[in-house]
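Q: What structure does this chain adopt?
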Amino acid sequence: MIGAQSATRTASEPSKSDHTDPAGTTASTAGDDVAFHEDGQLGVEFNHPKTWRVVHSRADLLVLEAGHADDLVLVRKTILHAEVNATNVADFRTVTDGILGDPKANLDVLDTGGIQVGDLPGVFYLYTFPFESGRGMQAQYFVFKGRDLYTLVFQTGRAERFATLAPSFDIVLETFGPTDASEPPKESRSK
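A:
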């Protein structure tokens, strides 16, 4: 979880009442305050608070507004040239450490480490960044499935709001996963 910097896909499977928008995303009911989201373009699924809304969707990027215009969740998919798994994820971390450690970025990295999101390996970074007249905060996760890199960014425009939003960000992280045509439909998966 974002608060504890670890994640497993443990949320109960939602019961769905689907509707699909033109962008190929499916939003469904999953409990009183949580919605299930499946994005056919990115090939991902997760739960999120019902009050959030999709503000941008394309084949490689999905952006949800988390109640405030500068509180966002971004999900990006990138196809890598080589597979990344638990045994070589440290090689990728060298690259991300270099990017986030660039002095021009003006980031204050608060925490970083290896992460497991469901059964997928990854790395995370928690940092503040310049935003308007103060500092924003982001938790950024790089999650790997073979050659697919899923980047999840949980952002608040004001760092002091991050702790309040962390439980909602955890809902996404705990239920995030790539969709897989070889898996049975969500309704028939065992819990």
